[in-house]
Amino acid sequence: MKLSRSTGLMAMTQPESDALITPRDIQRIITEKEQAQAREEMAQRKVRQEEQEHLHAAFLDREISPDVRRRFSHAVRRAVERGEKEVMVLRFPSDWCTDGGRAINNAEPEWPATIDGYAKRAYDFFVSELEPLGYRMHAMILNFPGGIPGDVGIFVRW
Questions:
Q1: What are the structural domain ranges in the chain?
Q2: The whole model's pTM is what?
Q3: 140: which strand partners?
Q4: For 55-71, how does the pLDDT look when each residue is reduced to its tens digit (9 = 90+)?
Q5: DSSP characters for 67-131?
Q6: E strand or H helix that includes residue 64
């Protein structure tokens, strides 16, 4: 075994003699490999966390599209033609709710108080524009990764 100048890691090289690899050498190789894998996993986890933070910031800042009425009507028309009675209008991680999705998971009537950002603006649009026309809204947890609430789906019914 020789120390690599470029990586600083011990590397297996062709033995200069007929010496056998020792259990200590094997353990060192395993440890180095596990440490490199752990560093890679930490780096990937950090990248995913930064991406989620970026997406959440964009979600908080996003505004209702000026063509929302046309897009909503088109989506509802297509759903009706398929025989459906509701359309999912929004999906986002339950972590973005102020209570982690607890009120939605328990179907509590005050669940709208736990949403913010784009979800809050979409809810306000529903209350001002769609509810007076007879539409109804409900929210539910769509999945439970690891047994905890995952994504929230917000649906409009007719």
A1: 2-60, 68-157
A2: 0.73
A3: 153
A4: 999 999 999 999 999 99
A5: THHHHHHHHHHHHHHTT-SEEEEEEEEGGGSTTTTHHHHTT-TTGGGG--THHHHHHHHIIIIIG
A6: none
